[in-house]
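Tutorial sheet, problem 5. The two components below are modelled jointly, 222 residues in total.
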Amino acid sequence: QKEVEQNSGPLSVPEGAIASLNCTYSDRGSQSFFWYRQYSGKSPELIMFIYSNGDKEDGRFTAQLNKASQYVSLLIRDSQPSDSATYLCAVNRGNKLVFGAGTILRVKS
Amino acid sequence: SQTIHQWPATLVQPVGSPLSLECTVEGTSNPNLYWYRQAAGRGLQLLFYSVGIGQISSEVPQNLSASRPQDRQFILSSKKLLLSDSGFYLCAWTETGDINEQFFGPGTRLTVL
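Model answer (structure tokens):
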């Protein structure tokens, strides 16, 4: 079992819809969880992080964390074609982050 | 504000040649520094990380090495490149603390021929 698992996709959603990206992790000791967006050929950029159970909202993005079930998700409301990218989930392990392989999101106009 | 630089942006090298990639961070002190490699269509592989000058932790044994000669400088090296060393090399930094948000540099795309 990989430490951080994501569905590779691609996940296709129409413009204006809600995109839901999911991530599961295996280490129950993980405290912090991160979502990154990576456009093709570019470096990852941090979207948001979460460390408490529940929801955290930032603009069109909402991160959801459920430590009991060991999953974290990212919701993107009003999806735009510019949101088309690979979304990476990461989980802390001490001084390091462990990344999932990423989910490709395609937003169709 | 903090910024992170990497150079060169792209590099084409023959098999067996040496490698030196540089990463510098501005606007922060005593950051944790990280080197990742991303092969085409693949996830991020952590290669090395450093919590201070001269302190290097290696994650994956291979023909690469890293050094941190100054607080905000991180160097990735190889004496002899292999074809399998091709990829997108990313440097990242984080402030020491509990949350551990990492911020990435623009990356170096290395092609070994």
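Marking note: The interface with chain A takes residues 32, 34, 42-44, 46, 49, 51, 59, 90, 98-107 of chain B (CB under 8 Å). Full credit if you identified this.
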